[in-house]
Amino acid sequence: MAKLEVCDLGFSIENKRILDNINLCIEENKFVGLIGPNGCGKSTLLKNIYRIYKPHVGAVYLNKVDIGKIRSKEVAKNMSVVFQENNHQFEFTVKEIVLMGRYAHKGILDNNTKQDEEMALRSLEKVGLKDFYNRSFLSLSGGEKQRVLVARALTQNAKMIILDEPTNHLDIRYQLEIMDIISDLQVTAFAAIHDFNIASNYCDYLYVMEEGKIKYHGETKEILTSQMFEEVFGVKSYVFKNPFTNKIQISFYSKSSDK
Amino acid sequence: MKNLDNKLYSALLYMTLSIGLIFSIIASISLGAVRLDFNDVWKIIANKMFLNNIFQNTWNISTENIVWNLRFPRTILAIIAGSGLSICGIMMQALTKNPLANPYILGISSGASTGAVMVIIFGGSRLFALQSVSFGAFIGALFTSLLVFVLARKNGVFSSTRLVLTGVSVAALFSSITSFLIFTAKEVSKVREALFWMTGSLAGAKWDRLLWPALWLLVCYLFLIIFSRGLNSLLLGEGAATTLGVNTKFFKNAILFLGSILTGFVVSMTGVIGFVGLIVPHISRTLVGSDHRKVAALSIFIGPILLIWADVLARILARPEEIPIGIITAFLGSPFFIWLIRKSSYSFGGKDG
């Protein structure tokens, strides 16, 4: 079980307020999405949650514990993160990368056990890369790398998973597969998402950010309305129910075609 | 099956390297201005090491002196400096996540040079010259790393990029001071001495000066082995390491602390020996991948072997004069490294295209 709460969080960069009075409550086993236009502070908020940044005001609580006050390993046992990592420069095998997910579960002198390796293999199998176990990570394509990082997060075996636009440059098939994998896990997920149809398909609940604040939040179908898209994103849209999935579907159109 | 192959591979690798190292040690003691008998050399060492006379004494006392008081400590210094520079290179590459990093990237060598050159040029009595030069170098090294550390910090944290850029600037500053000192020096012999020091030499080896550097080296090596998991993750970037549970602040501070002092020790004993700290970690990675435990273990064989042979060449190429060892390491190291880059499947930081 995992429950994430953000209380009165504020964050500034060089005296410019980037996040202001953010309050979130991500319930157990829910898939919660975070949407908002570029520069609204989505990524900064997530970085405050996964501790790249330290909040200047307020705090982030994981299962009622302030994550700023406990050891990194304790946080990592309960929360894994998938984000875009572009600065890999050193050769590792896929196996080594995925097994790094076990770091938080290991003492400093422990070796990887058979169970660890089996876990890594299972995770790779889930993302469809079972045969890549001994391949060099740097030789993979962008999409394959991203799936390996998802496998690493699965191997971390945490009950909370944060996704910072992890599927951006993946083919649609892998975008869906990864979202399927994560929503099938018995975990709480919090994801920054660019594609609203994907958000509609997978999220139970949505937070909408604008200019460093939470503008709206609520059940997915209540949030995804053409008024909201016009107001927050400045675009025209046609929102309808997909008869096949019964989920909300959004189609955007340019202002010029508006008659 | 794959696992078995891996085990066999590392067993063979370490066996070859151990034999190579032992052979290099004995060969390096036999070769030099005076050529000594191979047989005598290892017997003298065995007798001295085990503190009793295993072998009949068939050699004269001057041979024993050359072996035990001159050449053996020099070879030990080559081992300490070779592994020390390699370990520092590994540490700095992990700290900066940059495959181009070397032990001197924080400007430590420039600061050490300034310290040493100051002592050489304004130096006190000749009697303590060697000790005071290396003392000057050590102080210079520590002062520089402290300066870089303080200047690169902002709001209590330092980014890798800022650290490297600060290091480069501070290095330039100290290099200019050193050049100024050398150009304005009155005595030609001191200029030559300063230049010789700056290119590195193992000639100053003395038994009583090896203990602390060796102990510090051991601490650094253990750090790499014990914390290899965290260091591996650190190579993926600080963000990734943090989310995996690595306390990146501890790691960065520990590397800076251990690495600067180790570099300071090595540079103060040998001067600035280039290239070893950059290439040895990469040679090791081409053989065993990037896992710090393996890279560190391999580097403390490869670094010493490389430096021992460079020193042998430094001693015999222009007999009876000695060439600064840094000239050899760079002259032979760079073509070898270029060959390695071109032929290897190992990517040295990022694939093309």
Question: Briefly, what is this?
Answer:
The complex is a heterodimer of chains A (259) and B (353). Helix content of chain A is 31%, strand content 29%. The model of chain A has no long low-confidence stretch (mean pLDDT 90).
Descriptive report:
The complex is a heterodimer of chains A (259) and B (353). With 259 residues, chain A is an alpha/beta fold. Chain A has 9 helices and 12 strands. In chain A, the strands form 3 sheets. A 6-stranded mixed beta sheet of chain A has the order 6-7-8-3-9-10, with helices on both faces. Chain A has a 4-stranded antiparallel beta sheet with strand order 2-1-4-5, with helices on one face. In chain A, strand 4 (57-62) and strand 5 (65-66) form a beta hairpin. The longest helix of chain A has 15 residues, at 142-156. Chain A is globular. In chain A, 40% of the residues are buried. The two termini of chain B are 34 Å apart. With 353 residues, chain B is an all-alpha fold. At the A-B interface, helix 2 and strand 6 of A face helix 9 and helix 10 of B.
Mean pLDDT of chain B: 86
**Global mean pLDDT of chain A:** 90
Largest sheet of chain A: 6 strands, mixed
Query: Strand count, sense and closure of the main sheet of chain B?
Result: none
Instruction: Count the domains of chain B.
Output: 1
Please give the CATH architecture of chain B. Answer: Orthogonal Bundle
- Strand sequence of the main sheet of chain A, in spatial order? 6-7-8-3-9-10
Give the overall form of chain A: globular
The total of beta strands of chain A comes to: 12
Q: Strand-and-helix sequence of chain B, N→C?
A: HHHHHHHHHHHHHH
Uncertain stretches of 5 or more adjacent residues of chain B: none
SSE arrangement:
The complex is a heterodimer of chains A (259) and B (353).
Chain A: E1 4-13, E2 16-26, E3 31-35, H1 42-49, E4 57-62, E5 65-66, H2 72-78, E6 79-83, H3 94-99, H4 114-126, H5 142-156, E7 160-164, H6 172-184, E8 188-192, H7 196-202, E9 205-210, E10 213-219, H8 220-223, H9 226-233, E11 236-241, E12 248-253
Parallel strand pairs in A: 3-8, 3-9, 6-7, 7-8
Antiparallel strand pairs in A: 1-2, 1-4, 4-5, 9-10, 11-12
Helix pairs in contact in A: 4-5
Chain B: H1 2-30, H2 38-49, H3 61-96, H4 108-122, H5 129-152, H6 160-184, H7 188-199, H8 211-226, H9 228-234, H10 238-243, H11 248-270, H12 276-288, H13 292-316, H14 325-343
Helix pairs in contact in B: 1-3, 1-13, 2-3, 3-8, 3-11, 3-12, 3-13, 4-5, 4-6, 4-7, 4-11, 5-6, 5-11, 8-11, 8-13, 12-13, 13-14
